[in-house]
Specification:
Layout (H helix, E strand, L loop, with lengths): L8 H23 L6 H24 L4 H10 L6 H17 L4 H4 L5
Helix pairs in contact: 1-2, 3-4
């Protein structure tokens, strides 16, 4: 079984950037005391809605980089906080099992 190697990539970053720009434009427009054109505000709100929907779609349909997530969780096992270590260990185990793998499958001596 292949461990998830494909990252969300450019579509995820692009969707996040579009949402950020749309929200910033709407915020600037709403803070401008001279702003009176309601049609433009509606257009900017629609842009935020579209960008939010695009980001949600990417988050739902694009595979995550499971390997990076596992590495991060395993790194947390060295925490000074017992609760954080326990949570990280549980999350790592759940991630491995959710892929239909065992720890023997994940940990090997082969490079």
């Amino acid at each position: 079984m292949r461990w998830g190697t494909k990252m969300r990539g450019d579509r995820y970053l692009e969707a996040r950037a579009q949402l950020h720009h749309a929200e910033a434009a709407l915020k600037r427009a709403m803070s401008d005391d001279q702003w009176t054109h309601e049609n433009e505000l509606e257009r900017l709100r629609a842009n935020v809605d579209r960008a939010t929907a695009a980001l949600e779609w990417v988050e739902k349909h694009e595979p995550r980089d499971d390997r990076s997530r596992l590495v991060k969780l395993l790194g947390m096992l060295g925490s000074d906080h017992a609760g954080e270590r326990a949570s990280a260990g549980l999350a790592a185990d759940q991630l491995v099992r959710s892929k239909g793998l065992s720890w023997s499958d994940v940990v090997s001596l082969e490079a």
